[in-house]
Design brief:
Layout lengths: L3 E2 L6 E4 L9 H28 L6 H18 L2 H10 L3 E3 H34 L4 H4 L2 H17 L2 H8 L3 E2 L1 E4 L6 H6 L4 H38 L4 H30 L7 H26 L1 H16 L10
Length: about 325
């Protein structure tokens, strides 16, 4: 450990990145820049289409906008710093900057889990209680559900972040990660006993905010499946279930990447595998969400086409290929 001291003299954290890939910084920069651009473009398209197209002004797509905004913020907390590391070897991050990044990363991660619960609840109301759906899922209720997910999720990690910031670190502490992940920063602290407690506390909270939302989503879809099975016509069952498939794929992708990240916490797993699994978790869902909702959702797909045609038709005549 590096010159253990009080936090008052802790100036910087040094992000090691991928220890085994130090000779591949430029390829890593190109790959992650491509991923980041795809995430930004895909989610901005979703946001724009839902806002512009009045046919998508429904609770389901209001929550989808929240998910897209979240994905942009979530990746922006980590990828720009990673790009600077790979391109310019800018591996140092200030003490306050590190903990702001850590809080944002974990807070937004919990927000995604809670938003997926809210979206599952919306599908439950739409399929299990269709006659009361319009009266129940009003604009006010939608805003309250989304706001609750954001506020609760951003409050949950705050106490742990504060406690972790009180640990002793070196003046320049080496963090074996591409960003300030809680576990990686705790492992870089000077006091092993305090670090062990913070590791246990952080892991316990992480498991709780993963298992509880997943359980709520599972219960919602168990009720949905029961309701769908009661529908007499085969076409009706298929139509009802088709409104859930995109969300189910997103849930599966999110929790699969979490499971991979948690599995890498084992002591016998190489550092690079642990770092990569966390990076995949931070990128995979935001990257796939726009693709899943565009390809699997007919309404979004049609809205994207309508928006593109609208933009083409609104171009000045000299630029309009069909003019």
């Amino acid at each position: 450990m590096d010159n253990c001291s009080s936090n008052a003299s802790t100036k910087h954290f040094f992000l090691v990145g991928f220890p085994a890939l130090q000779d591949f910084q430029m390829p890593l920069f190109v790959v992650f820049l491509l991923f980041y651009l795809l995430i930004l473009v895909g989610n901005i398209i979703i946001i724009t289409v839902v806002v512009v197209d009045h046919k998508l002004h429904k609770p389901m797509y209001f929550f989808l906008i929240n998910l897209s905004v979240l994905d942009v913020l979530f990746t922006t907390t980590t990828i720009p710093k990673m790009l600077a590391m790979f391109l310019a070897n800018a591996k140092t991050i200030s003490f306050h900057g590190c903990f702001l990044q850590m809080y944002s990363f974990h807070g937004l991660s919990v927000t995604e889990a809670l938003l997926l619960v809210v979206m599952a609840y919306d599908r439950y109301e739409a399929i299990c209680r269709p006659l009361h759906y319009s009266a129940k899922m009003t604009r006010k209720v939608n805003i309250q559900l989304a706001a609750s997910a954001w506020v609760i999720a951003l409050l949950i990690p705050a106490p742990v972040m504060v406690q972790t910031s009180q640990l002793s670190y070196g003046e320049t502490t080496r963090v074996y990660h591409c960003f300030c992940d809680h576990l990686a920063v705790v492992q870089a602290a000077c006091s092993d006993s305090d670090a062990d407690f913070q590791t246990f506390l952080g892991f316990s909270i992480a498991m709780t905010v993963s298992i509880v939302p997943l359980s709520l989503v599972t219960i919602s879809y168990a009720c949905i499946i029961i309701s769908i099975r009661r529908i007499n016509s085969k076409e009706g069952r298929a139509k009802a279930f088709s409104t859930c498939t995109s969300h189910l794929i997103v849930v599966g992708t999110y929790y699969s990447s979490i499971a991979m990240a948690y599995a890498s916490y084992r002591a016998d797993i190489p550092v690079d595998v642990h770092v990569m699994s966390n990076v995949v978790f931070s990128i995979l869902t935001p990257l796939l969400n726009p693709i899943i909702y565009t390809l699997r959702n007919k309404e979004v797909k049609s809205a994207v086409k309508r928006t593109i045609l609208l933009r083409i038709s609104s171009l000045p005549k000299k630029f309009n290929l069909f003019g």
